[in-house]
Amino acid sequence: MPSEFGLIRRYFTHPVRHTVLGVGDDAALLRLRRGIDLAVSTDMLVEGRHFLRGADPRLLGHKALAVNLSDMAAMGATPRWVTLSLALPRADARWLRGFTAGFMALARAHDVDLVGGDTTRGPLNVCVQIMGEVPAGQALRRDGARIGDDVWVSGELGDAALSLAALDGRIRLAPRELERAKRRLDVPTPRLALGATLRGVAHSAIDISDGLIADLGHICERSRVAATVELSRLPASPVMRRHLDHPAATGARLAGGDDYELCFTASARRRARIERAGARLGLPVTRIGRIIAARRDARVTVLGADGRRLALPGRGFDHFT
Amino acid sequence: MPSEFGLIRRYFTHPVRHTVLGVGDDAALLRLRRGIDLAVSTDMLVEGRHFLRGADPRLLGHKALAVNLSDMAAMGATPRWVTLSLALPRADARWLRGFTAGFMALARAHDVDLVGGDTTRGPLNVCVQIMGEVPAGQALRRDGARIGDDVWVSGELGDAALSLAALDGRIRLAPRELERAKRRLDVPTPRLALGATLRGVAHSAIDISDGLIADLGHICERSRVAATVELSRLPASPVMRRHLDHPAATGARLAGGDDYELCFTASARRRARIERAGARLGLPVTRIGRIIAARRDARVTVLGADGRRLALPGRGFDHFT
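Predict the joint structure of the above. Result:
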């Protein structure tokens, strides 16, 4: 079995492009340009909670980085550097090869330097920290939503949760439907180009990792406002559209996490600009609701096709409930 | 049981001093001053590997931050920001209170902002990432040792490993001896003031987390040199001095990790300056050997009292061997 240092060297040493000093010292050294703020975020993924036991290591490597890139997208930041800490039950070279291949392919695609990390023996745990650049004062924050803003989402919502519902037997999908929906769960695409485009345009943004209601609720909480969302406006994939009437589908669209689309708010004057940006990026952007004054009973109200309030199927995904 | 968000808010939201935006958004925002590089390091601690099951959460909180601060010390960096990711078997408020108290007391003592993190359910795992400031180009790196340099260490070596040897029954210590030695294991003191003082003085530095031989070996490897160390010069605590002849003591001094002292190299012309710095800081600094040209047979050679080479008792602590 190779030593820890052998493992680190073999799998985690890659050329760096934005970095003074990379893997191999007590710390990496990064240099920021003038007028740039550093955006920093971290996510921990645990077997049996964020991914299934025996998950394909290549997909897991992709996802571990993708969910962190998604946080950069939600800030309007350009990701530059990442560290990766891994606890592994055993030093399994095949697993590490797969994981690293998935992780590094996505890192290279977004020109992100792997600058440090740690490996240790233990129950499987993947902890990634990402750092990115954003022009000072221009980050997309959760606390900037204003009353009257449109509420937007990118892409389509709920397919990742729909695939989980199918795997749990809560809804039946055709094999090809399941395969397509599960791609959204396994290989999320961080919306980095959209996030960067929204700097100076959107008033607030978040990535939808815990579900639309929960994440839009975070924007409302931090911005001290509320929101209404029209269920009929939520963008749905072809697979989702075939199951819209199923309760599991409604739950997946409103409260399913793991799609890693962006939810953002912007002045109505920005509509044309935002639609053009979506068209240019080949990424649907959809107005789904409005920001309203804070109210006591709910941060986010969902209106059904008849204009009546929906009883919500549950809160967003919460790792401790 | 409080929700994840409740947990984060209650235990991990603290005032920040150097930070544009702290906990509560998709990412924290940091601003660096001109001419400053960012030093970044991360460590993952796993139950049963880096700490015992049932470890005092307050001590664990201290140690989880201390080992990361030690990496900053070894770079000559001033720690500023930290993120903390935790996997916990259950949302145990008492455990979290203790852990946070230990962690935050040390953070406040060193004026470090907790700017982000993640909490999830899973086998106990603590992943900390630390970020610090170092004047551009002045970091203490592993790759700068030069032939003829003195090799220095701070403090005293081996007490942490000695306490582990006693707990394992490999050596017998009096209860008061064990208690004193175990303080070094449980409550390591990062040598931040020394690290900062060594900027522009030392040619290379590392913190001794894996044991002197292994860590000095890392300096030698990265600097393409070798080193000799005289066993009789290694600084020993009063407890250690009473057990110097025991094989477990020699192992602890040479290959025991977890003391988190600094090992550094510097030109002989710097001796007086380094000794004055140690005196000013109230921290012993001891010359233990020299940097020599790279050799094939060993990176680090240890000489006994008779001037003969010692057969080494083992490699440094390696989490995968």
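Chain B is about 35% helix and 25% strand.
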